[in-house]
Design brief:
With 446 residues, this protein is an alpha/beta fold.
């Protein structure tokens, strides 16, 4: 159940209120307990989904969350932001003729129940004496650290920012992912014995030699380098990457300036460029700051990579969608943004990727008034750390090249999450990190 749009658009409180106990139990009892459950293979971290659903049906909620935590130490996070509709729920057999099981809502419910009662820490294997360094405390870093700690290794996470959590803290707004919940689940990882050192930049406050002196190292630095369209006017004041805009608001509280130190320009008319989840986040944040928001996307709405729920929420909250429209310049007056010049696009045939091609329509240029522009067209791996490791082989897009075990070209150095795959989802980052942790464990035990 969602809060009313006209109420929630005025604050940053959580939008989705979740299911009731009765609804959760009834939903769990719909599961037919397949002999060959596809939902497990549809989950990037391999949670035993039928088992935890059966526990919920039996109203054994602690058993359910214990089952989840065997494979995932961030259940409240994943229950909220995982794209279940394309993963576990997307392959649910019931979805063929009926509605698939609401797996994400069930996961969220039992995680929230445990948090309210007080979570118990899973048992760890006996200490191995091996020390592993993890760079980055986002979903990948936390997942890798938790898995290694449970296997008996001593783990230290180095985080460059002043708070742990990575994109969960600086990228995803509180109305989608409340920060107290993120912090609680980070604390559960710390209870496994994981040490998190914030304000530690590898290559500066921590040398590369020190990093490589560990028994193994895992790079989970994410994809924090924003992409730009390279159109005229991008250097004008009032033009933000979505990464900067969301970080200023989500992590630094810039929407409350001067109460908080970090400022952000609060626009009256904001144009957000893009069609993914990050674009929806930026548009919805701008609405909560009082702006009229136009979201420009060069293809049709059906081609948007954002989750359907995020598109629906944005529309309900008053974001105006301008599809089949491509910005070609950002206009300015008196050294400030005054508008966006755009051109209408003609949508063509559907390609192998399932998305329409598009072509500019001659003579269709027009201007949309704006005083703030946010570009949300994607991001890639931050190159700063990677440049300090010249032996590290990278792919053409700048991501770290890894094999199927997460091994990089440097011995004992592994990588996972967005720094290796390119920008993806929270749960996919956790999945690759967990695979790397398993490989690190095997390597350390040889």
């Amino acid at each position: 159940m969602d809060r009313e749009a006209d109420i929630r658009v005025a604050d940053f409180e959580e939008v989705d209120l979740g299911l009731t106990r009765e609804e959760v139990v009834a939903e769990a009892k719909r599961c037919i307990q397949c002999k060959k459950p596809k939902c497990i293979s549809g989950c990037p971290v391999g949670i035993d989904i039928p088992a935890f659903i059966q526990a919920i049906a039996d109203e054994k909620f602690q058993d359910a969350v214990d089952i989840i935590k065997k494979d995932n130490m961030l259940p409240a996070v994943c229950g909220r932001v995982c794209p279940q509709e394309t993963q576990c729920q997307g392959v649910c057999v019931l979805g063929i003729k009926d509605t698939p099981i609401a797996i994400g809502q069930l996961e969220r419910y039992v995680a929230d129940i445990e948090r309210k009662k007080g979570a118990k820490c899973p048992k760890c294997a006996p200490a191995t004496g091996r020390k592993v360094a993890v760079v980055g405390s986002g979903p990948a870093g936390l997942a890798c650290a938790a898995e290694l700690a449970r296997r008996g290794h001593s783990v230290t996470i180095f985080e460059s920012l002043h708070e742990a959590g990575g994109v969960l803290m600086y990228g995803i707004p509180a109305f989608r992912m409340p920060k107290d919940i993120v912090q609680y689940e980070i604390d559960q990882v710390k209870k496994l014995g994981v040490e998190i050192k914030t304000n530690h930049i590898v290559g500066r406050s921590v040398s590369v030699d020190e990093l490589l002196s560990y028994s193994a190292a895992f790079l989970g630095t994410g994809a924090g380098l924003p992409y730009f369209m390279c159109i005229p006017g991008e250097n004008l004041p009032g033009v933000y990457s979505a990464n900067e805009f969301l970080t200023r608001v989500n992590l630094m509280g810039a929407n409350k300036f001067p109460e908080n130190d970090t400022p952000v320009k609060v626009g009256k008319k904001v144009v957000v460029i893009g069609g993914g989840n990050v674009a929806m986040d930026a548009a919805r944040v701008a609405r909560r700051m009082g702006a009229d928001v136009t979201l420009m996307y060069r293809r049709g709405e059906a081609d948007m990579p954002a989750r359907l729920d995020e598109v629906r929420h944005a529309k309900e909250e008053g974001v105006f969608f301008m599809t089949a429209t491509n910005p070609i310049a950002i206009l300015g007056e008196n050294n400030a943004v005054s508008g966006v010049e755009a051109i209408k696009m003609e949508l063509g045939t559907t390609g192998d990727d399932g998305r329409c091609s598009f072509y500019p329509i001659e003579g269709s240029k027009f201007v949309v008034e704006a005083d703030v522009v946010v570009e949300a067209i994607g991001q890639g791996p931050n190159p700063l750390l990677l440049r300090m490791l010249p032996e590290l082989t990278r792919n053409r897009n700048g991501s770290v090249a890894v094999n199927c075990l997460g091994e990089t070209s440097i011995p004992k150095v592994y990588a996972g999450g967005d720094v290796a795959t390119g920008a993806a989802t929270v749960i996919l980052a956790m999945g690759t990190a967990k695979e790397a942790a398993v490989a690190i464990d095997k390597m350390l035990r040889k």
